[in-house]
């Protein structure tokens, strides 16, 4: 399958996944990508990446440690010094666009890898892969229009700015949107002239490794390096490495704080995109059907494993019953299934750990006094080898409960009611996170007022919840992070600005 048509599989769940595993393994070597070569870890150690639908190993990949990270940083430094850092934006742009073209030619295969490793419905994996590529392309193009400034001053001086790359940058990504988040970071990093070392999440290393193999002979050797491994063994050395000039991390808030502390040792710049507990406020003036549709997508897509999932609904008490009935009906209409067959839109959670965490939270909610109206673990049928949780809705939730304050990272919606505008905003802001928010109302003034009053990096009004677009900044207020991705400005975060002051003497010939 090399076109962008989806090659669905048929047969029992064991048959479809065995066939897909074979197809994936035929695509590449899946070694660590260092200096544009596929390599083993220096120690020779490997670890398994699993297929979350059947709970079985797909293949093993190198378990990199500080030695391998060091080799990758050296390869990146050589690429940077060897020309990537100094070539024109046009040349970099051309190289990136060639890579994008090759990735697009193989988009069906990339999506298959992403689907199998991450337990994503194939159809969603394809949409996400194309979407991810749009960001690489966006940065390759936007860098061509990048400019510095001249600073007005008096006649005996000329002052202008240059935007210079950091050199080697370290990128650390999570498992929920492996390619998307990688390209959100690689796009601006490479376009700005940095060479990159990327460490994908240990649960989902395969798509980035395959994408890197497809950069062979297109990106100059060593420009892009991928080290696979665990957080403390392979991620931490990247954040501590003296030659890494910038770190961009997406993942859990607790890990983000560790990354920031490590970067502080060498005063390394960081971008952090961390967790969320994003509110979706449904006002009495909302089109309830439309709000139900948007909320269902915002919380149940990707089995709720999205940093910007709208994991708290705040609904006005007059329409709470209608809204809840609608959401429950929608949740019950989403049937978990084999990710590789046509029609499936609900896949499993990524891992046994995540399954345990999410099902524990449903229990915690019950103990705290919430009512589980629908959902819970899938307990029978042929999906029990995977980590499936049905779309779940908890009502009678008070904003002080743990299920309303902590990131569950699963398909679990919690519903709280409010009476007044002020109460809605107070509840919306009463969490330590501030990544995103949704607002549903047909009253335009109210919509803009709420968008201004809610403390969040992104607000979606009346639809398209949680889909950042190329050019639209994405990032968090409060403990949801530092810096922005996806926008033109992200190019700035991958450069340092230099002011050059030139003394202009009296002309003498
Ligand atoms: P994590 O934050 O540990 O993992 C994200 C990435 O950081 C992975 O590549 C990991 O190997 C790396 N990492 C871990 N420790 C590191 C360290 N000390 N230094 C450098 N890199 C390190 O998240 P994890 O354990 O996969 O998931 C735990 C919870 O985090 C989830 O249940 C979910 O609530 C949340 N999460 C949030 C995400 C988001 O996008 N906001 C994404 C993934 C997880
Ligand atoms: Mg996996």
What is the residue-averaged pLDDT? 97
Rg over CA atoms, rounded to whole Å, is: 24 Å
Strand content: 15-25%
Number of helical elements: 16
User: What topology, given as strand order, has the largest sheet?
Assistant: 14-15-16-13-12-18-19
* Helix/strand class: alpha/beta
Query: CATH class of the largest domain, please?
Result: Alpha Beta
Number of domains: 2
Number of strands: 22
- Which range best describes the helical content: under 10%, 10-25%, 25-40%, 40-55%, 55-70% or over 70%? 25-40%
CATH topology of the largest domain: Aldehyde Dehydrogenase, Chain A, domain 1
Architecture per CATH nomenclature, i.e. the level-2 architecture of the largest domain: 3-Layer(aba) Sandwich
| First-to-last CA distance | 69 Å
The CATH superfamily label of the largest domain reads Aldehyde Dehydrogenase, Chain A, domain 1
Q: Unreliable runs, pLDDT <50, ≥5 residues?
A: none
């Amino acid at each position: 399958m090399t076109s962008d048509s989806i090659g669905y599989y048929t047969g029992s769940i064991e048959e479809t996944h065995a066939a897909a595993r074979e197809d994936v393994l035929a695509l590449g070597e899946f070694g660590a990508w260092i200096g544009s070569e596929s390599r083993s870890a220096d120690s020779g150690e490997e670890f398994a990446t699993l297929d979350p639908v059947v709970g079985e190993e797909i293949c093993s990949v190198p378990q990199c440690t500080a030695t391998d990270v060091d080799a990758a940083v050296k390869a990146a430094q050589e690429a940077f010094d060897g020309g990537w850092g100094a070539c024109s934006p046009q040349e970099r742009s051309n190289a990136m666009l060639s890579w994008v073209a090759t990735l697009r030619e193989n988009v069906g295969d990339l999506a298959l890898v992403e689907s199998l490793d991450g337990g994503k419905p194939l159809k969603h994996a394809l949409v996400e892969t194309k979407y991810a590529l749009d960001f690489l392309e966006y940065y390759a193009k936007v860098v061509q229009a990048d400019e510095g400034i001249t600073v007005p001053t008096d006649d005996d001086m000329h002052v202008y700015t240059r935007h210079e790359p950091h050199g080697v940058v370290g990128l650390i990504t999570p498992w929920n949107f492996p390619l998307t988040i990688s390209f959100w970071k690689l796009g601006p990093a490479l376009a700005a002239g940095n060479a990159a070392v990327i460490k994908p999440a240990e649960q989902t290393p395969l798509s980035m490794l395959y994408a890197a193999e497809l950069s062979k002979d297109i990106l100059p050797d060593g420009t892009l390096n991928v080290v696979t491994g665990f957080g403390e063994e392979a991620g931490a050395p990247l954040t501590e490495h003296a030659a890494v000039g910038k770190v961009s991390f997406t993942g859990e808030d607790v890990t983000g704080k560790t990354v920031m502390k490590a970067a502080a040792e060498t005063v390394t710049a960081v971008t952090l995109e961390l967790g969320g507990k994003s509110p979706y406020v449904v006002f009495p003036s909302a089109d309830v059907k439309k709000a139900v549709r948007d909320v269902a997508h915002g919380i149940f897509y990707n089995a709720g494993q999205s940093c910007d999932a709208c994991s708290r609904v705040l609904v006005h008490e007059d329409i709470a019953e209608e809204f809840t009935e609608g959401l429950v009906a929608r949740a019950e209409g989403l049937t978990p299934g084999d990710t590789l067959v046509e029609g499936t839109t609900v896949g499993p959670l990524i891992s046994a750990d995540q399954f345990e965490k999410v099902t524990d939270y449903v229990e915690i909610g019950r103990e705290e006094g919430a009512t589980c109206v629908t959902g819970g673990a899938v307990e029978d049928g042929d999906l029990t080898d995977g980590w499936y949780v049905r779309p779940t809705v908890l009502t009678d939730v008070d904003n002080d409960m743990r299920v309303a304050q902590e990131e569950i990272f699963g398909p679990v919606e919690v519903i709280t009611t409010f009476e007044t505008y002020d109460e809605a905003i107070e509840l919306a802001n009463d969490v330590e996170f501030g990544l995103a928010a949704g607002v549903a109302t047909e009253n335009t003034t109210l919509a803009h007022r709420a968008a201004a009053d809610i403390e969040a990096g992104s607000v979606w009004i009346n639809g398209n919840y949680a889909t950042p677009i190329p050019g639209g900044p994405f990032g968090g207020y409060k403990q949801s992070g530092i810096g922005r991705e996806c926008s033109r400005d992200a190019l700035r975060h991958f450069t340092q600005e230099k002011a050059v002051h030139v003394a202009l003497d009296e002309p003498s010939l």
